[in-house]
Design a protein that fits this description.
Blueprint (H helix, E strand, L loop, with lengths): L27 E5 L6 E4 L7 E5 L6 E2 L10 E6 L2 E6 L6 E5 L2 E4 L6 E2 L5 E4 L3 E6 L14 H13 L6 E4 L6 H12 L5 E5 L7 H8 L1 E2 L11 E2 L1 H4 L4 E5 L6 H12 L19 E6 L10 H7 L3 E4 L10 H12 L6 E2 L1 H9 L5 H18 L4 E2 L1 H15 L44 H10 L4 H7 L4 H11 L8
Parallel strand pairs: 3-4, 12-17, 12-18, 13-16, 16-17, 19-20
Antiparallel strand pairs: 1-2, 1-11, 3-5, 5-6, 6-9, 7-8, 7-10, 10-11, 14-15
Length: 479
C-alpha cells in the first residue's frame, strides 16, 4: 500500500510554506546506507539541481534496503538553500534533532541544516556537511557531458511534452527514459514498447497499442489493454522507433494526432484522454531512418536529447563500475585494481555502457569463482582481447582516439589525432585513427571539396565519405 503513495504531488505544498532560514552552508551530504559504506555527494557542483534517493533503478543515490521505497525522497536546490522532500514513502522520513525523531510530512520541503540528520526508514540517514571531507574521493565525479545530460533530463522531467532520445545502441537511452519517468511521474505506469517487435498485421497492431474487448476477433478470449491504455497517466517508452514498419508508422501517427482519443478493437466507446507522456528513442538520426517525414516531425515536436557516448564521459566510468559491482555482488564486493580501472577507463567500449556493464559483471563473477576479491589488469586485458576476437576490427571510432586500439596498445599513452600539417607517409595514415576534427579540418582547408579533402588525408574517397557519415558531418552543398 505504501508504494502507491509515491505519486504524491510534492509541488502543491511549495506556495504554502513559511519562510525559512538559509541552509547553514550545506555543500555536501554523507549518505549512510544500512550495511554499506557511506557515500559523499557534492551538492555544491549541482546548483539548481535534484538528487533522487531510493532503492529503485532510476535513482542516483541508491539504497539497497527493502525498508526504503523505490523513490523515497529527493534533495532539491531551492532559492535559499538545499531541502529534503519525502515523496510519500512507505516507511517515512524523519528529522533527528537533539535526539528526537520527528516525522516529516510527505511533500513538505525540510531545510538541510548542518548538525541535523534526515533518517530514511530504519538505519539509513542523510548527514549534511559544511564542506567536502578532504580525505574523501567521490567515485562518481561527473564529466561535463554527463552533468549536462543529467541536468537536461532533470529540467524536462516535469513537462508533459514528448521527448526524443538519440544515441548509439547501449549508451543508456532506456535508463534516460526511465529516469525521466521516475523524476516526473513517480509511482505511475511505466510501459515499454520495442517497435522492432510490433506485429505488422493491422488488427494485431491495434490490439498491441490500444487493446481489444472480448470477442473482437478470433482468439480474443478476454479484454486486453494495449500499451497506450496501460500507460494511462504515466509514460510510454517507444524504443527502437526507427524500426517501425510502414503500417506501424501510419498507425502511430494517427494515435499521436488524435490527442489521446483512442478506441479499442470491438468497442464503440472512446478511451481517453489518457494523459500519456511519449518518450521515443532511436540510434539513428531521423533523416537516416525509413520513417516518414510527418511522423519524424511529430516525434521531434518536444524535447530532443542526445545521449552522450561513453567516450565523451570517460570520467564517469569509475562510478559506473562501482555501481555495477554493487548491483552484481550479493556476497561481498569484488574490487578492481587501480591499473585495471585505468584500463577500463581507456578501453574503446564500442557497445557503450551495456558492454562495460557486461564486462564488469563477467570479470567480477570470474574473480568470485576463483575465490579472488581483486580483478587485475591482466583480467581486463583478457576480456578486451575476447571482445576484439568476437567483433573483429571495426572501422570507425566515432571520434574516439582509443576506439581501434588493442588491449596491448591501451597500456601505452594514446596517440594524438592526425593533423593536416603532419608529415606522415600515406601508408601510415590509418583511416581508423582519423577523428571528426581531421575530417572537418580537411573539408575546411579544401573549400568543401570531398575529393581533395580525401587526397589530403591520403584515404580513398568512399572511405572519407563513410567517415563523414559515421561522425555526422553533413555533405557540403553543391554550387
Amino acid at each position: 500500500m505504501g508504494e502507491r503513495r509515491q505519486g504524491h504531488d510534492v509541488t502543491a505544498h511549495r506556495d504554502r510554506q513559511p519562510p525559512r532560514a538559509p541552509a547553514a552552508g550545506v555543500v555536501a551530504v554523507r549518505v549512510h546506507r544500512h550495511g554499506e559504506e557511506p557515500v559523499v555527494w557534492s551538492l555544491a557542483r549541482r546548483a539548481r539541481s535534484t538528487l533522487l534517493i531510493g532503492r529503485g533503478e532510476g535513482v542516483e543515490c541508491r539504497i539497497a534496503d527493502h525498508s526504503v521505497s523505490r523513490i523515497h525522497g529527493f534533495l532539491r536546490d531551492d532559492d535559499d538553500g538545499w531541502v529534503y522532500v519525502d515523496v510519500g514513502s512507505a516507511n517515512g522520513s524523519y528529522l533527528m534533532e537533539q535526539g528526537q525523531r520527528l516525522p516529516l510530512r510527505a511533500g513538505v520541503p525540510q531545510p538541510l541544516m548542518v548538525g541535523t540528520d534526515i533518517h530514511l526508514a530504519r538505519d539509513n540517514r542523510i548527514e549534511p556537511l559544511s564542506a567536502l571531507p578532504p580525505s574523501t574521493v567521490n567515485a562518481r565525479t561527473r564529466s561535463t557531458a554527463g552533468l549536462e545530460f543529467e541536468g537536461h533530463l532533470q529540467a524536462m522531467a516535469p513537462s508533459r511534452l514528448p521527448v526524443f532520445l538519440l544515441g548509439p545502441s547501449g549508451a543508456g537511452k532506456t535508463w534516460a527514459a526511465r529516469a525521466l519517468h521516475e523524476l516526473g511521474r513517480p509511482g505511475r505506469p511505466w510501459i515499454v514498447v520495442n517497435c522492432a517487435r510490433l506485429p505488422h498485421d493491422p488488427v494485431q497492431l491495434q490490439s498491441a497499442l490500444i487493446g481489444h474487448v472480448r470477442g473482437a476477433f478470433t482468439g480474443a478470449e478476454r479484454d486486453h489493454d494495449g500499451a497506450f491504455v496501460a500507460a494511462r497517466g504515466g509514460t510510454l517508452f517507444l524504443d527502437e522507433v526507427e524500426s517501425l514498419s510502414p503500417t506501424g508508422q501510419g498507425f502511430l501517427l494517427d494515435l499521436l494526432e488524435e490527442g489521446g482519443q483512442l478506441r479499442k478493437l470491438g468497442e464503440k466507446a472512446v478511451v481517453g484522454p489518457l494523459d500519456v507522456r511519449i518518450v521515443s528513442a532511436s540510434k539513428l538520426e531521423l533523416r537516416r531512418t525509413a520513417l516518414r517525414n510527418d511522423l519524424c516531425h511529430r516525434l521531434a515536436a518536444g524535447e530532443i536529447v542526445r545521449v552522450p557516448r561513453l567516450a565523451e564521459r570517460r570520467e564517469d566510468i569509475p562510478g559506473l563500475v562501482d555501481d555495477f559491482l554493487r548491483a552484481a555482488s550479493a556476497d561481498g564486493i569484488v574490487q578492481f585494481s587501480p591499473a585495471a580501472l585505468r584500463l577500463l577507463t581507456r578501453a574503446p567500449w564500442r557497445g557503450e555502457v551495456r558492454e562495460l556493464e557486461g564486462s564488469v559483471r563477467l570479470l567480477a563473477d570470474r574473480a568470485r569463482r576463483a575465490d579472488r576479491s581483486l580483478v587485475d589488469v591482466d583480467d581486463v586485458e583478457r576480456r578486451l582481447r575476447d571482445l576484439e576476437a568476437a567483433h573483429g576490427v571495426v572501422d570507425g571510432s566515432g571520434g574516439d582516439d582509443d576506439a581501434d586500439r588493442t588491449a596491448h596498445d591501451l597500456r601505452r599513452p594514446p596517440t594524438r589525432p592526425l593533423r593536416l600539417d603532419d608529415t606522415i607517409a600515406p601508408q601510415d595514415r590509418n583511416p581508423r585513427r582519423l577523428t571528426r576534427d581531421d575530417i572537418v579540418a580537411a573539408l575546411s582547408a579544401t573549400g568543401g571539396n570531398i575529393e581533395q579533402a580525401a587526397r589530403r588525408l591520403s584515404v580513398a574517397r568512399n572511405t572519407f565519405t563513410k567517415k563523414m557519415d559515421d561522425f555526422g558531418v553533413p555533405r557540403p552543398s553543391r554550387g
